[in-house]
């Protein structure tokens, strides 16, 4: 597809389109592992941060706690994660990666990396680093509280 085939859209629309296409491509390829993109995001957070309370995982994934609970239910049934009680507060359930996750995370990472390489094909070699730095800056900019945030 050339630039001529892509409508001139705003940055937000283009970012959403890229995200949608990355997710669709990942889900098509990761289906062999039995992973969705939402499950992949959960596993990446567990591997990055270690075992986490369900409430914290919901925050990190920016989903409602009930949606996270359903996601964890499906992943526990499939053997990707397990819930354990918090030793200090029995109301809290901690989500842990399983041996299956540790064994398969490399295969899932390979799928993600190959999709990113495909997405970046034809761009200058340093484009990935530049784009990543720009997106990080945008995240930092938009993560700062604004005056309207205080009114909520």
UniProtKB/TrEMBL annotation:
Keywords: DNA-binding, Transcription, Transcription regulation
Occurrences of domain HTH marR-type (ranges): 8-140
Gene Ontology biological-process entries: response to stress
Matching SUPFAM superfamilies: Winged helix' DNA-binding domain
Keyword Phosphoprotein listed: no
Keyword Repeat assigned: no
GO molecular function: DNA binding; DNA-binding transcription factor activity
Pfam families associated with the record: MarR_2 (PF12802)
SMART domains for the chain: HTH_MARR
Protein name as it appears in the record: Transcriptional regulator, MarR family
């Amino acid at each position: 597809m050339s630039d001529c085939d892509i409508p001139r859209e705003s940055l937000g629309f283009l970012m959403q389109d890229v995200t949608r296409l990355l997710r669709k491509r990942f889900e098509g390829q990761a289906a062999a592992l039995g992973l969705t993109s939402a499950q992949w995001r959960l596993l990446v957070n567990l591997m990055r941060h270690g075992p986490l309370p369900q409430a914290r995982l919901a925050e990190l994934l920016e989903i409602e706690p009930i949606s996270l609970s359903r996601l964890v239910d499906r992943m526990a049934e499939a053997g990707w994660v397990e819930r354990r009680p918090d030793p200090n507060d029995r109301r809290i359930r901690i989500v842990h990666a399983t041996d299956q996750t540790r064994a398969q995370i490399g295969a899932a990472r390979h799928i993600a990396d190959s999709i990113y390489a495909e997405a970046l094909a034809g761009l200058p070699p340093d484009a990935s680093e530049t784009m990543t730095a720009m997106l990080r800056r945008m995240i930092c900019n938009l993560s700062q509280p604004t005056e309207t945030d205080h009114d909520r």
